[in-house]
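[SOLVED] Need 3D model of a two-part complex

Original post:
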Amino acid sequence: MSTIIRTEQLTHIYGAGTAFEQAAIRNVNLNIEKGEFVGVIGHTGSGKSTLIQHLNGLLRPTSGKVYINGEDIWAKPKEIRKFRFQVGLVFQYPEYQLFEDTVYKDISFGPRNMGLSEEEIDRRVRQAAAFVELKEATLYKSPFELSGGQKRRVAIAGVIAMSPDVLILDEPTAGLDPRGRDRILGEIREYHQQQKATVLLVSHSMEDVARYASKVLVMNRSEVFLYDTVEAVFSRAEEIEKMGLTVPQITRICRRLAAQGVPISPHTYTVESAKEQILSILRERGKR
Amino acid sequence: MALTDISIGQYFPGKSPVHRMDPRMKLVLTFVYVIMLFIAGNFLSLAMGVVLLLVVYPISQIPLKLIVKSVKPIVPIVLFTGILNMFFVKGDILWAWGFLEISRQGVRMAILLALRILCLIAGTSLLTYTTSPIALTDGIEQLFSPLKKLRAPVHEIAMMMTITLRFIPTLIEETDKIMSAQKARGADLESGGLFQRIRALLPILIPLFVSAFRRAEELALAMECRCYHGGEGRTRMRTLQMGRVDAMAALLVGVFLAATIFFAVAGAV
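Solution:
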């Protein structure tokens, strides 16, 4: 697999040169491969938001470099928009950015900025709407009359419509009920699989990260603490809990069970896998 | 540059005697100071205004840099009015070129005027530097409360000012966020002609208005939940109280005012 996002000694200092100088991220070296589904976790203020805003050139690094597909994104500052189309970023509470009088027009804002033809824009809008399961009739409604969950899906469609190679989402499920959350995460997974896109998902829910991500990026105190597979990251539960983060609930339960001598793997991250293991243990016992 | 770098209001927090003064006294004394500057018609009386600043600024511990910053934007205006006065006041001619002539009285007038404007700005800036916006609106509300008898909505106006001040940073932050979100969708805010740029602002202004209305509604609801019903019978957590500092400040300004009046009447300089 080839590398799609690479950062080199990426550092960002807010208020450089003033009394309030503060490093938001320090010496971040990352290599994210194409097609990866990365869960980004870390405390509030650990630098997650600052990091992701560097990946599409919304923030300019104080020092260090960002490469997308091997290209230094700040080599030609005038062409920075090109990278914003390649790396789609969905902010927290994206429904507050909706502004057009119809859903259709709002979703087409991104593709239109790309300078695509009308047919292509239409195709993109419909495809993006299909991804987030919006009905045809909804496309012609005003975004302001939709429900919270629908607005959120419209806003996500607005970014998906640019067909970015990399899709970054900052807590896309904040404030949604469990059904709305599962729906949005399912749609993101769909985009990931169908478009062979790389996805970065910032989340506070370890359950979601364990369920959807293939790799986990742990940020701590402005630095990358770990970037590894879900198994490798959650197997270091003590260190992660020391940072004030948690591992998935089911992992905690399995670790306890394993410590008490139950033959279950302490490295269990999803409820499904725990269920299978427990059922097979029970079957074994039934035979005896 | 991020929008959040802009500092709104000029309040410079501190613990100096000037900071500790009652905002009502500061408002009144600032007003007196402005009147004092206009009474001063000659150099000696105007010098009183300058000396008063030289006394109060060090006490307030406001850095010199800030004073320069507050005066800087008005330097062109000062120069402009000064030069106009130089040419238009008639009197003993010092220099002439065609129809342009400069008189001795003109130069004197120009210097007096420039000095007066500079003192005016530096003096009134001291008020905003040393008083938090909230204290300032509290002071204004109390000073104008006698007008309530005339059915002027003093409390409501003060509350509006307070809410406005409270929401400026929030709205700036919000604007910043919406701008980033639209830029992430490829919005181009930096290029194009005037018309294009105004059009490019729509994706930012519309969400901003929507969110401002939403916030206003939420705030109104929260205020009603806490039984807000206007200013009547409302008490304060921090009541304003005059103290020794205020008495001393009043005395100081009083003495300078008397001196100014004396020199203005007596002085010929």
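Edit: The first helix of chain A runs from residue 48 to 55.
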